[in-house]
Design a protein that fits this description.
- With 575 residues, the chain is mainly α.
- It has three domains: 239 residues, MFS general substrate transporter like domains (Growth Hormone, Chain: A, Up-down Bundle), CATH 1.20.1250.20; 82 residues, no CATH class; 241 residues, Growth Hormone, Chain: A.
- It is 63% helix and 3% strand.
- The chain contains 15 helices and six strands.
- It has a two-stranded antiparallel ribbon.
Length: 575
């Protein structure tokens, strides 16, 4: 078997020698930088709400929205990172540059939390209502550091997994098997980074120094960048082939410019320039887009050769790729709300925990460390699914586990139940708060919150893997990168929807009654249980819409057509 990887090149731009490039050593450097990224991002996100409320003297709702906006922007910027990697920078440069940006952001955040001039003085203990709010400059430094981190995170998330996969040759059976192990280990390293963040790092923030904890994040990223650069000459690189976003826009522009033209009676007359092996056959759905492939007089030049300007004329395959992406959108839209409920684990659940009894013997559990049950639920659910459910399902149904749509549906249902459990737990916590005279920790165990963490963790295990599988396997070959971006955008929009709901709900509920609203400054005086109940109700409605969308998607899938075995077609490069 050849030792040359024809589709990859080495540091010198030559075809990659598989004996000298790729494999587990360079992949290990990429796993290391992803672990440090998760350590930094989650170490900041899970405990940021307590810093904003306790140190920066912000309201509960404002603190929660800053956290959800930060996380939402991080995932939204994955789209930008993917575009830059596909079109200009390549995956290695995108990962390296993004890591540097994130390192600068975490270093600035460490300074922001450590220097007294960059946050307001502590509240007056004699009069807790008189707290000096953070100034514009102090908030400006905080925002700058957070969104530098978000920019770096977006670039890393968009390209790290793909660059790691580039180190293995899918045409080589042995390396293809290693590629499957890489994705398993990639998820393991993500979970490990999260686990360390919500335990060790959060403890350092609460008991030692928040500035030191963020300094550790910055230092770990610096070490990871150094390790990444050590492997520069051992990596395999892939050439950029342009962004699929441009292909989608080209189809839309071409179809719009030819909107007045009639479609030919025979679809064989539509323009096609892909070879049979890579061609996608025409379907009748979304026929308006077919006009992008109609050959008009303006598509010819004087010598009779077709003008292959992709903004004026697109192939049937390009049009069908866009149709395939459109078919994904109903599933895409109905998975957004899951990540809205997920956002509550990083914000209000931590706020709840901070008011409850968290002592075990003489040890005080940091409020944000309760999310360890969420991470453990993810890992246990995946382990049980891989080792128990899949073998049993294969014996019973003859299939290797649940389909991606079934896994998503199970995750959405668990999120609805998880929010209902959160509402019940909050009702109990609030009743204790109303009857208690304690001004610090309420006489109710923080472990009352465990069910909502476990249910949401199990829900994420099914939804995350189901979504990722769905968007990658169901998208056309030329749109794999875009489909991964769509997945991250659902997470991003989920966080933004959470911020929007918090603002709307607080504005509406504060206009009647006592004026406190459901999500007021004091969580004990609010009605967080009602907010959780609303999310559970919306999740059930969304679950019903998802089932309708999944049924529609399966009904709209084109029937497989056998590829042509004769006839010559021009390769795409002939344009």
């Amino acid at each position: 078997m050849s030792s040359i990887h024809a589709q990859a090149f080495d540091y010198n731009g030559l075809p990659a020698d598989k004996s000298k490039t790729g494999g587990w050593i360079p992949a290990g450097f990429i796993l290391g930088i992803e672990l440090c990224e998760r350590l930094s991002t989650m170490g900041i996100a899970v405990n940021l709400v307590t810093y904003l409320a306790g140190t920066m003297h912000m309201t509960t709702s404002a603190s929660a929205n800053i956290v959800t906006d930060f996380m939402g922007t991080s995932f939204l910027l994955c789209f930008l990172g993917g575009f830059l990697a596909d079109s200009f920078l390549g995956r290695f440069r995108t990962v390296a540059i993004s890591a540097v940006i994130q390192t600068i952001g975490t270093g600035l955040l460490a300074l922001s939390t450590g220097l007294p001039n960059l946050h307001p003085p502590p509240c007056d203990t004699a009069n807790s209502d008189k707290c000096e709010p953070a100034g514009n400059f102090q908030m400006g430094v905080l925002y700058l550091s957070l969104y530098l981190i978000a920019l770096g995170t977006g670039g890393l998330k968009s390209s790290a997994s793909g660059f790691g996969a580039d180190q293995f040759d899918e045409s080589d059976e042995k390396e293809k098997a290693n590629l499957a192990y890489f994705f398993n280990r990639f998820f393991f390293f993500i979970s490990t980074g999260t686990l360390v963040a919500v335990t060790v790092l959060v403890y350092v923030q609460e008991e030692v120094s928040r500035a030191l904890a963020y300094g550790i994040c910055s230092a770990s990223m610096f070490i990871a960048i150094f390790a990444l650069l050590l492997g520069t000459k051992r990596y395999r690189y892939q050439r950029s082939h342009g962004s699929p976003i441009s292909h989608i826009l080209q189809v839309i522009v071409a179809a719009t410019s030819k909107r007045r033209m009639k479609l030919p009676y025979n679809t064989e007359m539509l323009y096609e320039n892909f070879q049979n092996a890579s061609r996608i056959h025409h379907t009748n759905q979304f026929s308006f887009l077919d006009k992008a492939a109609v050959i008009s007089e303006g598509d010819h030049v004087k010598n009779g050769v077709l003008d292959c300007n992709p903004w004026k004329l697109c192939s049937v395959t390009r049009v069908e790729e866009v149709k395939a992406v459109i078919r994904l959108l109903p599933i895409w839209a109905t998975t957004i709300l899951f990540w809205t409920t997920y956002a509550q684990i990083l914000t209000f659940s931590v706020e709840q925990a901070s008011t409850m009894e968290r002592s075990i013997g003489g040890f005080q559990i940091p409020a944000a460390s309760l999310t360890v049950f969420f991470v453990l639920a993810v890992l246990v659910t995946l382990g049980v699914y891989d080792r128990v459910v899949i073998p049993l399902w294969k014996k019973w149904k003859g299939k290797a586990g649940l389909t991606n749509l079934q896994r998503i549906s199970l995750g959405l249902l668990l999120s609805a139940v998880g929010m209902a459990a959160a509402a019940i737990s909050e009702m109990k916590r609030r009743s204790v708060a109303k009857s208690s005279s304690e001004t610090s920790a309420l006489p109710v165990s923080v472990f009352l919150l465990i069910p909502q963490f476990l249910l949401m963790g199990a829900g994420e295990a099914f939804t995350y893997t189901g979504q990722l599988d769905f968007f990658i396997t169901e998208s056309p070959k030329g749109m794999k990168g875009l489909s991964t971006g769509l997945f991250f955008v659902t997470i991003s929009l989920g966080f933004f929807v959470s911020s929007f709901l918090v603002v709307i709900v607080q504005k509406v509920t504060s206009s009647f009654g006592s004026g406190e609203g459901w999500i007021g400054d004091n969580i004990n005086k609010g009605r967080l249980d009602c907010f959780y109940g609303l999310l559970s109700f919306l999740s059930l409605i969304n679950f019903g819409l998802y089932l309708v969308s999944a049924k529609w998607y399966k009904a709209q899938l084109p029937k497989p057509i056998l590829p042509l075995t004769s006839g010559k077609s021009s390769p795409e490069e002939e344009c």
